[in-house]
Specification:
This protein is α/β, with parallel strands linked by helices. The protein has 9 helices and 7 strands; from the N terminus they run E-H-E-H-E-H-E-H-E-H-H-E-H-H-H-E. The chain starts with 6 loop residues before the first strand and ends in a 7-residue tail after the last strand. It binds nicotinamide-adenine-dinucleotide.
Length: about 250
């Protein structure tokens, strides 16, 4: 029970990798807040059946007021914030297209959710973590930002931004004993990706071919790295980006 008495916010926890992370942190004792733009109450209910504490808060991470409300509800319900996992993103729903066909509105929306969203969430929890002189922030980036990937330039750019934010914020927050790290999944068979047939056809076999461990990746493969970086074992690790992709990328 590594996270006993601790409180974790996981954004985008209604499905996929975010849900798996929330379930793991709860199973190790954390009270979890599931912050998602869609209703995550069924997931919270399921977690509560295990005896853990869980709260779903409808949140748009790209909306400053919505994020502030989510963090306020977290503190009201559970009294503190120890862990923030910035997982929410426009991800499995991306439509692949050549970069010339990406509209300015699509580009802006992607950066608003995938890069500004984590910024707003970190800014909102930093106050509480600084007061506690303790905190763990884990950003979910993407192997596409290491390797490049065609037909999703707005997404890759947003994840590249999140990687560089990880390093810079580690340097700003470290003096208050707040660590900032990132986990960079390879192509992972979340429910969303399984439903996106174009993604499956383009990436599933191609991803396996690049891996030292040549098999599919699943949401459950990602959670151990996140839990480690959120734990006290990782108190002297900050600004790092850990690829969890079956050994596809070395950096
Ligand atoms: N699945 C992969 O292959 C893969 C690979 C690399 C990185 N990632 C990253 O892992 C994370 C999860 O991936 P996934 O496949 O589970 O994604 P997904 O698309 O299945 O789920 C994303 C979740 O984020 C939520 N969300 C979207 N916009 C939001 C907003 N504005 N505010 C709050 N919540 C919002 C969605 O409702 C959903 O619950 C993402 O950050 C993604 O970029 C995934």
């Amino acid at each position: 029970m590594r996270f006993d008495q601790q409180v974790a916010i996981v954004t985008g926890a209604q499905t996929g990798i975010g849900r798996a992370i929330a379930e793991r942190l709860a199973s190790e004792g954390a009270a979890v807040v599931l912050a998602d733009v869609v209703d995550a109450e069924p997931v919270a209910e399921q977690i509560r059946t295990t005896g853990a504490r869980a709260l779903a808060v409808r949140t748009d991470v790209s909306d400053e007021a919505s994020v502030a409300n989510m963090v306020e509800q977290t503190v009201q319900a559970f009294g503190r914030v120890d862990i923030l996992v910035n997982n929410a993103a426009i991800a499995a729903t991306i439509e692949l297209r050549p970069f010339e066909q990406i509209s300015v509105a699509e580009w802006r929306r992607m950066q608003d959710v995938n890069a500004m969203g984590p910024f707003l969430c970190i800014r909102a929890v930093a106050l509480h973590m600084r007061a506690q002189q303790q905190g763990r922030i884990v950003n979910i980036t993407s192997g596409t930002a290491f390797k490049g990937a065609p037909f999703m330039l707005e997404y890759v750019a947003s994840k590249g931004a999140l990687m560089t934010m990880t390093r810079s914020l580690a340097r700003e927050l470290g003096k208050d004993f707040i660590t900032v790290n990132a986990v960079s999944p390879g192509y992972t068979l979340s429910e969303g990706n399984l439903a996106n047939k174009e993604f499956l056809a383009t990436y599933r076999e191609a991803a396996i071919q690049t891996r030292a461990v040549p098999r599919d990746g699943w949401p459950v493969d990602i959670v151990g790295a996140v839990a480690f970086l959120a734990s006290s074992d990782a108190s002297f690790i900050s600004g790092q980006i850990l690829a969890v992709d079956g050994g596809s990328v070395y950096h």
